[in-house]
């Protein structure tokens, strides 16, 4: 015995969704477009398989639209977007299908995401290579992608120059400090901004020599 649609009507102020009620007491919200696509009407009976397929189609549409809203705020990596869809309780299979679709449509591209992120960080808020790598890992970009992008857009040779610029802009805070305290303050300042041990030591020595 199938599931009979006992009622079908718009809900919400803007009538963007339909509420279907079935003979077994279940209900389902879906878009008017989907209802039209699969020819739903009051009194129609759906098999269990048809009901499952209908539910999956609606979940796909909801996940896709939810993903587009998330991406409209800022770009995301594939893994980062997947985590946000998981929080919204979409099934894993639907999330993977959504990510594959968005990737095929060029809404998602981890490599371009990493390029844009590194460029933005270097220009707008310079930080050391270690910190930026850590941030990209936190955004679920693969290590392989990170290493490839960093080597091209933020090579090791560039880190010293950026660290030097940051220290120059903040030199006033160290002007009255000398000796061991100066070294300690400089080390903490640069370390907190994600610079490497080698960069920190070289720059501290350079800075102290220039102060003499």
Please tag this protein with its features.
single chain, 212 residues, alpha+beta, OB fold (Dihydrolipoamide Acetyltransferase, E2P), Arc Repressor Mutant, subunit A, 4-stranded antiparallel sheet, rod-shaped
CA-CA gap between termini: 91 Å
What is the number of independent domains?
Answer: 4
Rg (C-alpha, Å): 27 Å
Q: Helix count, per DSSP?
A: 10
Low-confidence stretches: none
The CATH class name of the largest domain reads Mainly Alpha
Percentage of residues assigned to helices: 55-70%
**Helix and strand element order:** EEEHEHHHHHHHHH
**Strand line-up of the largest beta sheet:** 3-2-1-4
Tell me the structural class.
alpha+beta
* Arithmetic mean pLDDT: 94
CATH architecture of the largest domain: Orthogonal Bundle
In total, the number of strands is 4
CATH topology of the largest domain: Arc Repressor Mutant, subunit A
Hey, roughly how much beta strand do the residues contain?
Answer: 5-15%
By CATH, the superfamily of the largest domain comes out as: Winged helix-like DNA-binding domain superfamily/Winged helix DNA-binding domain
